[in-house]
Structure formats: structure tokens, C-alpha cells
Amino acid sequence: MLSELQRRFSDQALSIIGSLASLLCPSSSKFFIFEDIRPLLSTYGEVCNINESLLTAEMTVALNLVTKQLGDKLPQSDLQTVLKLLVPSVAFSNLKCVQIALTLPVTSASCERSAMNLIKTYLRNRTEDVRLSDLATLFVHKEHARALDRDKIIDTFANRMDRRIQFS
Q1: Mind giving me the DSSP string for 126-143?
Q2: CB neighbours of 156 closer than 8 A, spacing ≥ 6?
Q3: Which helix (H) or strand (E) holds 107?
Q4: Phi-psi sector, 71: left (phi>0), alpha (psi -120 to 50), beta
Q5: What is the distance, to the nearest Å, from the Cα of residue 45 to the centroid of all Cα atoms in its chain?
Q6: Greatest CA separation found in the chain?
């Protein structure tokens, strides 16, 4: 599994994914620990005007606030509960890195893109959305599709009423 992850993800992407636990998982022991989100900040911090020194202070205060409010319930809390405590406050302006973490694109997009290239070939580039969606579903669930009895499907289709358009 590790070799598959290394093949699919670059070192930078893996380090960013690793830093997400510090922002998105209240049950993690690394929750709101500044040092653990450095890979995320190195990629997105400057673009989003995040001041690292202020963020360090804000994360410390936010963690203290959340711990005080939730107490022993923090490890069982979800991110939405934690964010409800922090959103009304103007004091956490640099915590927009949580929003960045929530909006990062899915990392399997390259796999989905390569599957789409297999499905939507030059000959099929005028395929309508419904048919393309059906083809994509068959491709994604190919192990189930291979288990279907093709002869039974062909017989069912052949026994239907006349499907030809009759011109008068």
C-alpha cells in the first residue's frame, strides 16, 4: 500500500495531506499544532496572506478556547462543532488555513482523468452525457460488469419489441 501511495502522490502532496490532520481532525493528538501544518503553509500561506507568527498565536488561543469549551468531549467532537466555537470570533483571521484545507482538490483526480481518457476516446467524443455517465459507471465497477452474463443481456434486449423507427 505504501508503494502505491508513493507512486500516486509526490512527496509535497503527501506532506500536505499529512498536515491536514492538524487542522481537520479534533480527535488527533496533533490538532492545532502549528509545526505540523508547515507543509500546507509553505504551499498556500503566501498566496492567502497568512501571517505565520499570528497564526501560531491564534492556533494556541483557539486550542485553549476549544479545550476549555469542550473539555473531555474534544476527542469525540467533529470539526463542525469546533468551527462553530471559532467562527463568531474576529480574533482568528489567520485560521483561514482551515478553509484552505477543506477546499483542497481530491488527490485522485489524475486517476479519474486517466479513466475518462480511456472512456471518452476520439470516436466517442460526441457522446452524450447520459451515455458517458453510464460508460463511466461501467468502467468504475468493471468487476461487477464482468460478472454479468452477456448472453442473458443480449437475449433480453433481443426479445424486446421492435426498436426500429418505422418511416411511412
Answers
A1: T--HHHHHHHHHHHHTHH
A2: none
A3: none
A4: left
A5: 20
A6: 80
The set of cell numbers assigned to 1 is 500500500
pTM: 0.50
Query: Cα dist. 63→29, 81, 82, 84 in Å?
Result: 12, 13, 9, 13
Asked if residues 58 and 95 have their Cβ atoms less than 8 Å apart, the reply is yes
Report residue 26 as a C-alpha cell: 479534533
- 95-142 pLDDT, tens digit per residue, is 777 777 777 665 545 555 566 666 666 556 666 777 777 877 888 888
Q: What is the pLDDT of residues 83-92, one digit of tens each?
A: 777 776 666 7
Whole-number Cα distances in Å, 81 to 22, 67, 116: 16, 12, 38
